[in-house]
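Feature request disguised as a bug report, sorry. It would help if multi-protein outputs had a clear separator. Right now it looks like this:
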Amino acid sequence: MFLTEYCAVTDVGLQRNNNEDCHISLPLQGLWVVADGMGGHAAGEVASSIACNTLREAFLGGASLADAVQTSHKAVLDAADAGVGGAGMGSTVVALASSQDRFQLAWVGDSRAYLFAPSSETPLRQLTKDHSYVQMLLDSGAITPEEFTTHPEKNIITQCLGALDLPEVNVGLFDAQWQPGDWLLLCSDGLTDAVSDADIADLLKQANSVAAATAALLEAALKNGGRDNITIQIVQAPNKLQQRFQQLAGSISRNLR
């Protein structure tokens, strides 16, 4: 029995030679992460791998999700200083921690998390807020939501893990209680740049499982050009029995550390 039903997929896309995305899925520990590296060939994938591995080690070692993200930021900076990867490499990150009937999200950059609640009046809701130039323009009223989606500078981010000018990153946080039937979608911008929120919502409504939904989203991103690496994870709200198993597994894991 899975402690939480989930499905994850990553794809290089149709126009890239290497995959700079990285993800981890740890249902036993209730941790899922998507990281999108940047910095050119090799450097981006090094940055995203360092971000994922460091976040996992810090979180499983007892750090809060926000502190684990900060530790990842420092690890990317330290690696670049040591000549690993490349100078100026960086990574976005979005992480989900699930414990019993609650979940928390933490993010830096423009990798996103969405809540899909099929019985809600608004079935799909973006829970993260991009750390990006166009998000700043939208927040200031300089552009409209319609202009936001097509703005030519939409991929300029205002902070990332490994940013040389930031001693610390401003980690976005979101906490909530799981509701029966909820799905959480974590993704890199290879999905959201290729598939609109409305189309994502429609595809999720049509899917009868997280596996089917993940496959449908990847297929749509590739059909729409697949211009970037694409990473998608969908995590389903744990039921009461799964929550009890997770509590027991967490207790055993803590006692073994």
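(second protein starts here, but nothing in the output says so)
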Amino acid sequence: MARSALTMTAATFAATAALLLTACGGDGDESSPDDIKGAGTGASTSSPSASASGAADVDRPDVSLPEDLKLVFDFQRPSDADQAAALEDAANYIRALDHGIAQQDPNDPAYQFYSTGGAEKYAKSQIEAWVKDGWTVTGDDRYFNASIDPVGEGKSVLVSFCRNQAKFYSKKVETGKVNYTEENLDSYQKFSLLMSPSEASAAVWQARQIEVQGRVKECKG
């Protein structure tokens, strides 16, 4: 089983992003981090996300993964602090999604912490699909060629990156049998995430919308 892709046209994605920015107004407020959905659920303040975003005091949820699952984010850290934080929490959103699948929990607090709106719905639907069919995830999943582009006049950014899931496999929960597949164009995807600071804490960036394109030749190289 391969992770299904949510597809949107570029125009639709841009329009959705504009509407979200209009509805959100500012990119953050003075609310407590405790108000963030999914906070206070066994966070490790020594996690890479906490140190990278300069937010070691934020109680972040657990996004640890099973030993047989390895996520590689081959990203170059931006010099801009906000862009670096947005990129790291975009990676945390991916980690959280896989954490929910590994935990077999469509209501896992981790993805709720790192997403809202359409991106939150996407994560939940993905986890639900894996759980319903009795699958979990294993192998190596690689993300690379990240780019970050400002959106509008606020702090929101569009984070995009490629994915190579050639060695990322589904595994039956009951039997442990792995469904091995051969590398092909389906192995290559492109993710685009609309990221902005959480309304509860500017130290945390959340995915608001997500576009996943499949069979992306430019990611294959």
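Even a blank line would do. Unrelated, but nice: The beta strands are 69-74, 135-150, 157-164, 168-172, 178-179, 188-197, 205-214.
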